[in-house]
Amino acid sequence: MPFEQKEGQGALFKNDEKEEEHHADFNGSALIGGVAYWVNAWIKTYEKDGIKRKYYSLSFKPKQPTRVAAEKTVRDMDDDIIPF
């Protein structure tokens, strides 16, 4: 049975192809509000009261362009603006 993303859940996997420091340590996907997202995570550290603590910094990017972004792209390609 293939993997099925459930509403309000996600999955992260270790990024075995990380080549540079700015590449995510983990990547995966999530389904939030019916929208599928790519998820990236980095392991970060901070110091508080002399104690180093680790946390995950996350970023989310829609898998499909949003309707607003798609409409903006179409407007950007308006023939009235193109000089030829």
Describe this structure in words.
The protein has 84 residues and is mainly beta. The chain has one domain. 12% of the residues lie in helices and 46% in strands. It is built from one helix and four strands. The protein has a four-stranded antiparallel beta sheet with strand order 1-2-3-4, with no helix packed on it. Strand 2 and strand 3 form a beta hairpin. The longest helix is centred in the C-terminal third of the chain and has 10 residues. The chain starts with 8 loop residues before the first strand and ends in an 8-residue tail after the last helix.
Keywords:
single chain; 84 residues; mainly beta; four-stranded antiparallel beta sheet; 4 strands; 12% helix; 46% strand
Return the domain count: 1
Largest sheet: 4 strands, antiparallel
Secondary-structure element series: EEEEH
Note poorly predicted spans.
none
Trace the largest sheet across and list its strands.
Answer: 1-2-3-4
Total helical elements:
1
The residue-averaged pLDDT reads: 86
Q: Per DSSP, what share of the residues sits in E-state strands of 2 or more residues?
A: over 45%
Instruction: Report the span from N to C terminus.
Output: 53 Å
Global morphology: extended
